[in-house]
Amino acid sequence: MPPTPMPDDWQRALVVAAHPDDIEYGLAAAVAVWTAAGKEVHYLLATRGEGGMAGVPPVEAGPIREEEERRSAAVVGVTEVEFLDHRDGTLAAGPELRRDLAGAIRRHRPELVVTGYFGATWTPPGISPAYVNSADHRALGQSVVDAVADAANEWIFPDLVGEPWRGVQYIAVSELVDPPHEVDVSGAVEKAVESLAEHRRYLELLSDEPVEAQARQVVDMSTATGEGRRRVGFRLYWG
Q1: Which UniProt keyword terms apply here (predicted)?
Q2: Which residues does 14 contact at the CB level (< 8 Å), separation at least 6?
Q3: Does the residue 3 lie in any domain?
């Protein structure tokens, strides 16, 4: 059964990721479509990605990656980027992370909450064997889903500031293979490539290939449909 378009009956979205650059590995193309249509999108990062640059100490890497994420977000029309300052590489699904995420959901008051795929493994089209998903991605995704309910309940984390937020209509989880819902991003591919290329220092450490070429390869892989269109796929849940 072909995917159906993502619902459009929302105005404010919160995109939640574990690390700087996670959103740019596909999701940013959908963000570019949404902001171009007048939607308001905010980013929430659980860590600063300080443990992700080989040879660069975390105290130096964190500010670099934060600045790259802010520039990357601006390319696709996102002006508000919040960091929770959890330690990169050690995210744990549980009350501490859920509490911080629930607090952020109350602050940003989204109708749509978006996060990355958080299954144990993932297999890009045409690739075998499968990759093991990051421990941070797995912990974050489960905690995001739980935090939507936590943000609506005044009793689970009673010390949280702000009124309970019960306005989340949908939770959208990125789905690369066989997604039930999709955003047509055919007109946003160049913005997505430009957005990922803003992670220049990070990408330069990953490969000797030019940054723009790396960015294009990633965006091409993550948005390809095999039908001449480009999409970002999602699996939706009620908020």
Answers
A1: Zinc
A2: 41, 42, 43, 44, 104, 105, 108, 110, 112, 113, 114
A3: no
Which tokens belong to 141?
A: 């995704």
Structural domain total, the chain: 1
Q: Is residue 38 part of a domain?
A: yes
| Number of alpha helices (DSSP H) and beta strands (DSSP E) in the chain | 7, 10
How far is the CA of 160 from the CAs of 100, 101, 103, 106, 167, in angstroms? 9, 11, 6, 9, 17
* Buried b or exposed e, range 14-36, using 16+ CB within 10 angstroms: bbbbbbbbbbbbbbbbbbbbbbe
Domain span holding position 56: 10-238
The candidate with the shortest Cα–Cα distance to 195, out of 224, 216, 171, is 216
Report the SS3 class of residue 16: strand
Closest CA to 183 of 28, 16, 38: 28
Q: Give, rounded to a whole angstrom, the gap between the first and last alpha carbons of the chain.
A: 24
CATH number at residue 194: 3.40.50.10320
2 domain residue, yes or no:
no
**Inside any domain, residue 197:** yes
Paired with 16 in beta bridges are: 44, 115
Q: pLDDT by residue for the chain (239 residues), tens digit each? A: 889 999 999 999 999 999 999 999 999 999 999 999 999 999 999 999 999 999 999 999 999 999 999 999 999 999 999 999 999 999 999 999 999 999 999 999 999 999 999 999 977 666 778 889 999 999 999 999 999 999 999 999 999 999 999 999 999 999 988 899 999 999 999 999 999 999 999 999 999 999 999 999 999 999 988 788 999 999 999 99
